[in-house]
């Protein structure tokens, strides 16, 4: 095994002319991000409240689907193999809708990335949302980042042990409720809550809650930014998908450099010397949840949360310089400004148009299919062994299993007819009548298998495969479902 030369120091190219040197491996240091205040922090709070509110509250939302049907708006009913989403009911044979939804979600992610970089990571990703919540609890219990650092230096005093225990208890409660909310999507939520409270819930629910409690506690409480930097594949994929026109959180070094302290900058400017707007206060680094210094250029660790924009804007306000030293921008614009050209925002470009067209096409196709989809289905399976039977009188008999699906919640009275083979004798086992129309009923939200035998006429040709149709008609709403198969002769 070849061990890389640890003395070789990699260099990171930045958007500027300088390079940063660093070791190949450095042990992770705990990050104490300072609280940020500003527009992007407010947006993040709003998204946090909205997404967590939806996640924890949705299982309790009711949706009337008629008698005998579950009234939970969003429910994965594993026992009956159904997925309910408000007015939509997905059956196992319609899982392609779920595949379509996943493709749609991926395309939306690509579009967001093409417009404004890692918006998903910075604002919407569950890891970001829960980590933000856990940080908020930490600050509430242990104080701001300065106080937290002090506590680390103080060590395990009684007061620190008390605060740490308090913090971890709240974290575990949040984690427990997160796992608890997850299982509520798989059963009637109020009933399951009652069963959990009275310790009557099935073991599988306790195991699922236990696993999710542990993962939430570890990922959001302990691993935090490490998940984004080391575990998540999206930053690597995203880097391959982005282009130079995407708007990313960018340090505008054309304006910020040469960075200089406020006092020295004032003096330099009064002497007509060059001084950048960056006062090197490090506030942008202090608020960063992943410990990134955005002034070193675009980095894998930057989740594009915009908190450094808030921090820097507050500093610019104080030093009486314009906002936006760090902003959603790109390298192209920096180069344009350096060349004396105005900045441009190219949101509408071939890449974004292509993604939008794909999203609209797939979304509208799925919606049309959902609205116009039949409320039932029919499949026919020809008996394979034997394919046919020659009876004593020389005629040939084929047997089939016809499965009829009723996706309506009420029983349906249907009629089966078989066409394509003249003078055939048809029998449907367990159904009254001698044809050509066989009436039968299928319970609501159910399937029914019919065993059908067809005896061909004596005149049926040898070595033949005669196409036949199985038609199921609903006389009430005048709809028909058809499946085809063959009548085979020796
Ligand atoms: S917050 Fe703004 S002024 Fe302060 S170091 Fe960062 S970029 Fe420079
Ligand atoms: S560098 Fe700025 S945008 Fe990137 S993660 Fe840190 S605070 Fe968020």
Can you offer a commentary on this structure?
- The protein is of the alpha+beta class.
- Among the domains are: 15-111 and 124-238, no CATH class; 376-488, Immunoglobulins (Immunoglobulin-like).
- 42% of the residues lie in helices and 19% in strands.
- The chain contains 16 helices and 16 strands.
- The strands form five sheets. Strands 8, 9, 10, 12 and 14 form a five-stranded antiparallel beta sheet that branches. The chain has a four-stranded antiparallel beta sheet with strand order 13-11-15-16, with no helix packed on it.
- Strand 9 and strand 10 form a beta hairpin.
- Helix 4 (126-142) crosses helix 8 (203-223).
- Residues 1-18 have low confidence and may be disordered.
- One iron/sulfur cluster binds next to helix 13 and helix 14.
- Residues 251, 256, 278-284, 295, 311-312, 315, 325-326 line the site of one iron/sulfur cluster (SF4).
What's the structural blueprint in terms of helices and strands?
Layout (H helix, E strand, L loop, with lengths): L10 E3 L5 E3 L17 H19 L16 E4 L4 E4 L2 E3 L5 H21 L2 H6 L1 H17 L2 H10 L3 H26 L5 H9 L5 H21 L1 H7 L2 H8 L6 E4 L1 H4 L5 H9 L12 H4 L20 H12 L7 E4 L1 H8 L11 H23 L3 E7 L6 E2 L5 E11 L5 E8 L5 E5 L8 E5 L3 E10 L9 E10 L4 E10 L2
Helix pairs in contact: 1-4, 2-16, 4-6, 4-8, 6-8
Supply database-style keywords:
single chain; 490 residues; alpha+beta; Immunoglobulin-like; five-stranded antiparallel beta sheet; four-stranded antiparallel beta sheet; 16 helices; 42% helix; disordered N terminus; binds iron/sulfur cluster
């Amino acid at each position: 095994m070849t061990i890389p030369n640890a003395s070789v120091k990699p260099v990171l190219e930045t958007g500027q002319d300088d390079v940063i040197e660093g070791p190949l491996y450095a042990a992770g240091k705990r990050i104490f991000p300072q609280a940020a205040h500003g527009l992007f922090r407010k947006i993040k709070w709003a998204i946090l409240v909205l997404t967590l509110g939806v996640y924890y509250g949705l299982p309790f939302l009711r949706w009337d689907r008629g008698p005998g049907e579950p009234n939970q708006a969003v429910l994965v009913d594993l026992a009956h193999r159904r997925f309910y989403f408000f007015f939509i009911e997905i059956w196992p044979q319609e899982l392609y809708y779920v595949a379509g939804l996943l493709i749609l979600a991926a395309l939306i992610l690509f579009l967001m990335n093409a417009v404004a970089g890692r918006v998903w990571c910075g604002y919407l990703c569950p890891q970001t949302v829960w980590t933000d919540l856990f940080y908020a609890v930490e600050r509430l219990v242990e104080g701001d980042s300065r106080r937290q650092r002090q506590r680390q230096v103080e060590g395990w005093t009684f007061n620190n042990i008390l605060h740490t225990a308090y913090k971890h208890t709240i974290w575990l409660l949040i984690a427990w409720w997160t796992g608890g909310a997850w299982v509520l999507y798989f059963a009637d939520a109020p009933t399951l809550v009652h069963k959990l409270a009275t310790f009557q819930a099935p073991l599988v629910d306790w195991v699922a809650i236990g696993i999710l409690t542990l993962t939430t506690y570890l990922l959001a409480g302990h691993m935090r930014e490490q998940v984004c930097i080391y575990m998540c594949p999206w930053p690597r994929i995203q880097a391959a998908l982005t282009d130079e026109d995407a708007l990313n959180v960018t340090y505008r070094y054309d304006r910020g450099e040469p960075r200089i302290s406020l006092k020295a900058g004032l003096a330099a400017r009064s002497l007509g010397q060059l001084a950048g707007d960056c006062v090197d206060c490090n506030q942008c680094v202090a608020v960063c949840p992943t410990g990134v210094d955005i002034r070193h250029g675009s980095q894998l660790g930057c989740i594009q949360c915009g908190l450094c924009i808030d921090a820097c804007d507050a500093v610019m306000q104080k030093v009486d310089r314009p906002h936006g030293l760090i902003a959603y921008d790109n390298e192209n614009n920096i180069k344009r400004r350096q060349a004396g050209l105005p900045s441009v925002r190219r949101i509408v470009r071939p890449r974004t148009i292509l993604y939008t067209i794909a999203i609209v096409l797939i979304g509208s196709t799925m919606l049309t299919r959902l609205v116009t989809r039949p409320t039932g289905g029919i499949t026919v399976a020809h008996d394979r062994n034997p394919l046919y039977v020659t009876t004593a009188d020389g005629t040939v008999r084929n047997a089939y299993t016809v499965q009829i699906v009723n996706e309506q919640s009420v029983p349906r009275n249907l009629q089966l007819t078989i066409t394509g083979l003249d003078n055939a004798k048809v029998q449907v086992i367990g159904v009254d009548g001698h044809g050509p129309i066989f009436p039968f009923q299928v319970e609501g939200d159910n399937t029914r298998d019919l065993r059908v035998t067809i005896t061909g006429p004596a005149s049926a040709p040898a070595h033949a495969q005669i196409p036949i149709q199985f038609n199921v008609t609903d006389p009430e709403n005048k709809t028909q479902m058809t499946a085809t198969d063959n009548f085979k002769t020796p």
